[in-house]
């Protein structure tokens, strides 16, 4: 097994990976594009360890996974090392901190549903569709089941799942747990939809956003 490491610029490199090829990256488009291309440049690279920062861990891992998707390198196993628990570690049943470092070196990869949107951005932990002024106008569906039609002051929540069909959608509830609906895709269309992916809001609203299960799985190192 040939292991390469992508490490956030503000993370200290653990001693366990001191003998590995390490590429530093910031979570920006140009930095991540160059870092992932360098990290998996060799055809013999079979595992990519992602050492994420304390803040924005899921978004950092999602940026790496998105570049693997675009580069058509989903054959590379991905080991996610988050310094603390996140929505993503909860979804995929992953440890964090030192236990995640140990798993990255010794764990076995599993083929799992890869959840992405129509901009080729991977979702690791959670996503959200909301209105610019706090009110959504339009329609949202999970496969053939409608979440809302018309106007809603409740955001559309989206999360990946470990099992097919791969994604769940729900309307946010203030005092109660969301009623999750499972499917292959969550689609929201309407007026000025704000898309948030793993805590990062898109810079511009859109008329339509679809978050769905990619036709190929990713290989995630799991307990």
Folded structure, characterized:
Helix content is 18%, strand content 42%. A hairpin with a 2-residue loop joins strand 13 (185-197) and strand 14. The protein is an alpha+beta fold and 223 residues long. It is elongated and about 55 Å long. The strands form three sheets. Strands 6, 7, 8, 9, 10, 11, 12, 13, 14 and 15 form a ten-stranded antiparallel beta sheet that branches. Strands 2-1-3-4 form a four-stranded parallel beta sheet, with helices on both faces. Helix 1 (29-39) crosses helix 2 (57-70).
Decide which structural class fits the backbone. Answer: alpha+beta
The description of the largest β-sheet is:
10 strands, antiparallel
Number of domains: 2
Tell how many strands the DSSP assignment holds: 16
- Shape, principal axes of CA atoms: elongated
CATH topology description of the largest domain: Rossmann fold
Short account of what is shown:
The chain folds into two domains: 2-114 and 218-222, Rossmann fold; 127-213, no CATH class.
Secondary structure blueprint with pairings:
Blueprint: E1 2-8, E2 21-25, H1 29-39, E3 45-51, H2 57-70, E4 77-81, H3 87-92, H4 98-106, E5 108-112, E6 115-117, E7 127-131, E8 136-142, E9 145-152, E10 156-160, E11 167-171, E12 181-183, E13 185-197, E14 200-201, E15 206-213, E16 218-222
Parallel strand pairs: 1-2, 1-3, 3-4
Antiparallel strand pairs: 5-16, 6-15, 7-10, 7-13, 8-9, 8-13, 10-11, 11-12, 13-14, 13-15
């Amino acid at each position: 097994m040939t292991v390469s490491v992508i490490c956030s610029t503000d993370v200290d490199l653990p001693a366990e990976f001191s003998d590995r090829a390490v590429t530093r990256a910031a979570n920006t488009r140009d930095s991540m594009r160059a870092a992932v291309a360098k990290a998996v440049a060799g055809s013999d690279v079979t595992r990519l360890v992602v050492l994420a920062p304390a803040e924005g861990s899921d978004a950092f891992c999602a940026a790496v996974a998105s570049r693997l998707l675009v580069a058509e390198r989903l054959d590379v196993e991905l080991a996610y090392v988050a310094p603390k628990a996140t929505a993503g570690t909860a979804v995929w049943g992953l440890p964090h901190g030192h236990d995640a470092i140990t798993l990255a070196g010794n764990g076995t990869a599993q083929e799992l549903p890869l959840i992405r949107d129509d901009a080729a951005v991977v979702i690791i932990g959670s996503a959200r569709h909301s209105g610019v002024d706090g009110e959504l106008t339009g329609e949202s569906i999970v496969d053939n089941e409608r979440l809302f039609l018309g106007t809603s002051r409740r955001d559309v929540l989206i999360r990946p799942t470990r099992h097919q069909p791969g994604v769940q959608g729900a309307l946010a509830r203030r005092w109660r747990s969301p009623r999750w609906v499972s499917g292959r895709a969550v689609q929201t269309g309407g007026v000025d939809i704000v898309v948030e992916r793993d805590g990062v809001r898109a810079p511009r609203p859109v008329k339509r956003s679809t978050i769905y299960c990619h036709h190929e799985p990713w290989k995630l190192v799991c307990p």
